[in-house]
Structure of DUF479 domain-containing protein:
Amino acid sequence: MNFLAHLLLSGSPAATPDYEDLVIGNFAAEAVRGRAALEAYPATVQCGIRLHRFIDSFTDQHPVVRRTTARLREAGLGKWAGVVSDVGFDHLLARDFAEFHPEEPLPQFAQRQYQLLHQRRHELPERLQEMLHYMRQHDWLTGYAHPEGLHRALLGLSRRVPAAAVLATGAAAFLAELPAYEADFAEFWPELRAGVAKLVTTAAPIF
């Protein structure tokens, strides 16, 4: 899953202990590699990093997502199929945000996340601080709701990563078989949320 899903799965200010630390860790995890880098953070932020890793592992191993990525590989995305799946699922989550998170409109949720991340940006790895600037400036989280936002996100990745030029075609490939991916996401998302809820409520070893 991509940025929007990770942030949403961090919980809520009212119901989640150490919520802000979980958000910071979940976001920072994009650039935290290895045990030493993990342990440089306070324990509650480490929980957010571990949550991010759990979400990624759960997603990559899920049979529905494997079905999604197989279809995208056949569409020509090759090893980048997982990236298109992640961003494409964020598009569907943003597009139907009121269905999946009726407690708060997407624009309000997005601005709340930007504010929190910006206030604590000094805790983020340097490259994420720079990325956060552009994320806020161009409102990526809300932009995901539109096909143009999906295209911009994947086009940007294709330009930043020399070997990933094929990602420029990712939005078209995803949208070409949209009903199939909508069905995949509708099946997968409740299971991901349930997996995260179980992790948090049982204080599993990953935490």
Notes: The CA atoms of residues 95 and 146 lie 7 Å apart. The chain has a mean pLDDT of 94.
